[in-house]
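Show me a record, fold above all:
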Amino acid sequence: MVQFNLNQRELTLKVVYYGPALSGKTSNLQAIHQMLPPGASGRLMTLETRDDRTLFFDLLPVFFKTGSGYRVKIKLFTVPGQVIHDSTRKVVLQGADGVAFIADSQVAESESNKEAFRNLRENLASNGLDMDTIPLVLQFNKRDLPAIRSEDELRALEARRRTPIYRATAISGVGVLETLQGLVGLVWDHLDTSYGLGEKLQTDKRMFMTQIFQGLP
Protein backbone atom coordinates (compact mmCIF):
# COMPACT_ATOMS: atom_id res chain seq x y z
CA MET A 1 0.00 0.00 0.00
CA VAL A 2 1.28 3.44 -0.92
CA GLN A 3 3.09 5.26 1.87
CA PHE A 4 2.84 9.04 2.25
CA ASN A 5 5.31 11.01 4.39
CA LEU A 6 4.00 14.56 4.33
CA ASN A 7 6.72 15.91 6.61
CA GLN A 8 9.48 14.70 4.28
CA ARG A 9 7.28 15.14 1.19
CA GLU A 10 7.95 11.57 0.17
CA LEU A 11 5.75 9.07 -1.67
CA THR A 12 6.69 5.37 -1.65
CA LEU A 13 5.18 2.86 -4.08
CA LYS A 14 5.59 -0.93 -4.08
CA VAL A 15 5.68 -2.81 -7.39
CA VAL A 16 5.96 -6.61 -7.56
CA TYR A 17 7.21 -8.63 -10.53
CA TYR A 18 5.38 -11.97 -10.53
CA GLY A 19 5.54 -15.01 -12.80
CA PRO A 20 6.73 -18.60 -13.23
CA ALA A 21 10.27 -19.73 -12.49
CA LEU A 22 12.95 -18.34 -14.82
CA SER A 23 10.50 -16.21 -16.82
CA GLY A 24 12.77 -13.18 -16.49
CA LYS A 25 11.63 -11.35 -13.37
CA THR A 26 15.14 -10.83 -12.03
CA SER A 27 16.43 -10.04 -15.52
CA ASN A 28 13.94 -7.17 -15.68
CA LEU A 29 15.25 -5.63 -12.48
CA GLN A 30 18.85 -6.15 -13.51
CA ALA A 31 18.18 -4.40 -16.82
CA ILE A 32 16.45 -1.46 -15.11
CA HIS A 33 19.36 -1.15 -12.69
CA GLN A 34 21.87 -1.10 -15.54
CA MET A 35 19.91 1.43 -17.63
CA LEU A 36 19.38 4.02 -14.93
CA PRO A 37 22.29 6.41 -14.33
CA PRO A 38 24.13 6.58 -10.96
CA GLY A 39 22.01 8.16 -8.26
CA ALA A 40 18.70 7.22 -9.89
CA SER A 41 18.43 3.86 -8.18
CA GLY A 42 19.56 2.13 -5.02
CA ARG A 43 21.41 -1.11 -4.54
CA LEU A 44 20.06 -4.19 -6.33
CA MET A 45 19.87 -7.06 -3.86
CA THR A 46 19.54 -10.61 -5.17
CA LEU A 47 19.25 -13.78 -3.10
CA GLU A 48 19.95 -16.94 -5.05
CA THR A 49 19.75 -20.62 -4.13
CA ARG A 50 20.37 -23.89 -5.93
CA ASP A 51 16.68 -24.60 -6.52
CA ASP A 52 15.46 -21.12 -7.44
CA ARG A 53 17.28 -18.12 -8.78
CA THR A 54 15.64 -15.69 -6.36
CA LEU A 55 14.55 -17.28 -3.10
CA PHE A 56 13.01 -14.23 -1.50
CA PHE A 57 13.07 -11.05 -3.51
CA ASP A 58 15.04 -8.43 -5.34
CA LEU A 59 14.62 -4.93 -3.96
CA LEU A 60 15.54 -2.05 -6.23
CA PRO A 61 14.46 1.41 -5.04
CA VAL A 62 14.13 3.79 -7.99
CA PHE A 63 14.15 7.47 -7.00
CA PHE A 64 12.64 10.55 -8.62
CA LYS A 65 12.16 14.16 -7.46
CA THR A 66 8.96 15.70 -8.80
CA GLY A 67 8.44 19.26 -9.96
CA SER A 68 6.26 20.01 -6.94
CA GLY A 69 9.02 18.95 -4.58
CA TYR A 70 7.92 15.41 -3.77
CA ARG A 71 10.45 12.60 -3.62
CA VAL A 72 9.00 9.45 -5.16
CA LYS A 73 10.51 6.09 -4.25
CA ILE A 74 9.45 2.99 -6.17
CA LYS A 75 10.41 -0.28 -4.51
CA LEU A 76 10.65 -3.07 -7.07
CA PHE A 77 10.37 -6.64 -5.81
CA THR A 78 10.35 -10.05 -7.45
CA VAL A 79 8.88 -13.26 -6.10
CA PRO A 80 10.35 -16.75 -6.34
CA GLY A 81 8.89 -18.67 -9.25
CA GLN A 82 8.79 -22.18 -7.83
CA VAL A 83 5.63 -23.44 -6.13
CA ILE A 84 7.49 -24.60 -3.02
CA HIS A 85 8.08 -20.94 -2.15
CA ASP A 86 4.40 -19.95 -2.30
CA SER A 87 4.37 -18.62 1.26
CA THR A 88 7.15 -16.21 0.30
CA ARG A 89 5.16 -15.02 -2.71
CA LYS A 90 2.25 -14.14 -0.43
CA VAL A 91 4.48 -12.16 1.90
CA VAL A 92 6.12 -10.22 -0.93
CA LEU A 93 2.70 -9.33 -2.40
CA GLN A 94 1.54 -7.72 0.85
CA GLY A 95 0.84 -4.05 0.32
CA ALA A 96 1.59 -4.13 -3.41
CA ASP A 97 0.47 -1.04 -5.35
CA GLY A 98 0.93 -2.71 -8.73
CA VAL A 99 1.97 -6.00 -10.34
CA ALA A 100 3.91 -6.82 -13.49
CA PHE A 101 3.25 -10.41 -14.52
CA ILE A 102 6.26 -11.72 -16.45
CA ALA A 103 5.25 -14.54 -18.77
CA ASP A 104 7.61 -16.77 -20.72
CA SER A 105 6.85 -16.42 -24.44
CA GLN A 106 7.92 -19.99 -25.23
CA VAL A 107 4.97 -22.16 -26.22
CA ALA A 108 6.31 -24.97 -24.04
CA GLU A 109 5.88 -22.72 -20.97
CA SER A 110 2.22 -21.88 -21.58
CA GLU A 111 0.92 -24.10 -18.77
CA SER A 112 3.51 -22.70 -16.34
CA ASN A 113 2.31 -19.20 -17.20
CA LYS A 114 -1.33 -20.16 -16.63
CA GLU A 115 -0.57 -21.81 -13.30
CA ALA A 116 1.46 -18.83 -12.10
CA PHE A 117 -1.34 -16.45 -13.13
CA ARG A 118 -3.92 -18.50 -11.22
CA ASN A 119 -1.57 -18.47 -8.25
CA LEU A 120 -1.24 -14.70 -8.49
CA ARG A 121 -5.01 -14.29 -8.31
CA GLU A 122 -5.18 -16.55 -5.24
CA ASN A 123 -2.33 -14.81 -3.42
CA LEU A 124 -3.69 -11.36 -4.16
CA ALA A 125 -7.02 -12.44 -2.68
CA SER A 126 -5.27 -13.82 0.41
CA ASN A 127 -3.77 -10.35 0.90
CA GLY A 128 -7.10 -8.59 0.47
CA LEU A 129 -6.23 -7.41 -3.06
CA ASP A 130 -8.38 -7.81 -6.16
CA MET A 131 -6.81 -8.71 -9.52
CA ASP A 132 -9.65 -6.87 -11.28
CA THR A 133 -8.81 -3.55 -9.61
CA ILE A 134 -5.10 -3.59 -8.78
CA PRO A 135 -2.88 -1.96 -11.46
CA LEU A 136 -1.59 -4.89 -13.54
CA VAL A 137 0.41 -5.29 -16.75
CA LEU A 138 1.51 -8.41 -18.62
CA GLN A 139 4.94 -8.77 -20.16
CA PHE A 140 5.71 -11.57 -22.60
CA ASN A 141 9.45 -11.98 -22.22
CA LYS A 142 12.04 -13.92 -24.25
CA ARG A 143 10.76 -12.69 -27.60
CA ASP A 144 14.19 -13.44 -29.08
CA LEU A 145 13.79 -17.21 -28.70
CA PRO A 146 12.36 -19.71 -31.22
CA ALA A 147 9.02 -21.49 -30.72
CA ILE A 148 7.31 -18.58 -29.00
CA ARG A 149 3.72 -17.32 -28.87
CA SER A 150 3.06 -15.52 -32.15
CA GLU A 151 2.22 -11.85 -32.52
CA ASP A 152 -1.22 -12.85 -33.75
CA GLU A 153 -1.79 -14.76 -30.51
CA LEU A 154 -0.68 -11.81 -28.40
CA ARG A 155 -2.89 -9.41 -30.33
CA ALA A 156 -5.84 -11.77 -29.84
CA LEU A 157 -5.07 -11.86 -26.10
CA GLU A 158 -4.94 -8.06 -26.03
CA ALA A 159 -8.35 -7.92 -27.67
CA ARG A 160 -9.83 -10.19 -24.98
CA ARG A 161 -8.27 -8.45 -21.98
CA ARG A 162 -8.15 -4.91 -20.64
CA THR A 163 -4.68 -5.56 -19.21
CA PRO A 164 -1.85 -3.89 -21.17
CA ILE A 165 0.57 -6.36 -22.78
CA TYR A 166 4.25 -5.64 -23.43
CA ARG A 167 6.82 -7.57 -25.46
CA ALA A 168 10.32 -7.86 -24.07
CA THR A 169 13.72 -9.44 -24.21
CA ALA A 170 14.72 -8.55 -20.69
CA ILE A 171 18.21 -10.01 -20.88
CA SER A 172 19.09 -7.28 -23.41
CA GLY A 173 16.82 -4.62 -21.92
CA VAL A 174 14.26 -4.56 -24.74
CA GLY A 175 10.77 -3.65 -23.49
CA VAL A 176 11.87 -3.41 -19.87
CA LEU A 177 11.46 0.32 -19.26
CA GLU A 178 8.27 0.36 -21.34
CA THR A 179 6.78 -2.26 -19.00
CA LEU A 180 7.77 -0.32 -15.90
CA GLN A 181 6.56 2.95 -17.38
CA GLY A 182 3.18 1.46 -18.25
CA LEU A 183 2.70 -0.05 -14.81
CA VAL A 184 3.76 3.03 -12.87
CA GLY A 185 1.38 5.12 -14.98
CA LEU A 186 -1.49 2.81 -14.00
CA VAL A 187 -0.43 2.93 -10.33
CA TRP A 188 -0.28 6.72 -10.39
CA ASP A 189 -3.75 6.99 -11.96
CA HIS A 190 -5.12 4.51 -9.43
CA LEU A 191 -3.70 6.56 -6.56
CA ASP A 192 -5.16 9.74 -8.03
CA THR A 193 -8.58 8.09 -8.17
CA SER A 194 -8.24 6.72 -4.63
CA TYR A 195 -6.57 9.67 -2.89
CA GLY A 196 -7.08 12.67 -5.16
CA LEU A 197 -3.45 13.58 -5.82
CA GLY A 198 -4.53 16.71 -7.67
CA GLU A 199 -3.46 18.58 -10.77
CA LYS A 200 0.03 19.34 -9.43
CA LEU A 201 0.97 15.70 -9.05
CA GLN A 202 -0.65 14.85 -12.38
CA THR A 203 1.86 17.23 -13.92
CA ASP A 204 4.53 15.40 -11.94
CA LYS A 205 3.26 12.14 -13.44
CA ARG A 206 3.84 13.39 -16.98
CA MET A 207 7.38 14.44 -16.06
CA PHE A 208 7.98 11.14 -14.32
CA MET A 209 6.73 9.04 -17.21
CA THR A 210 8.89 10.91 -19.70
CA GLN A 211 12.02 10.67 -17.60
CA ILE A 212 11.69 7.06 -16.50
CA PHE A 213 11.02 6.03 -20.09
CA GLN A 214 14.24 7.74 -21.13
CA GLY A 215 16.12 6.16 -18.22
CA LEU A 216 16.87 9.49 -16.58
CA PRO A 217 16.90 10.34 -12.86
Remarks:
- The first strand starts at residue 3 and ends at 5.
- The chain has a mean pLDDT of 84.
- The domain at 3-213 is CATH 3.40.50.300 (Rossmann fold).
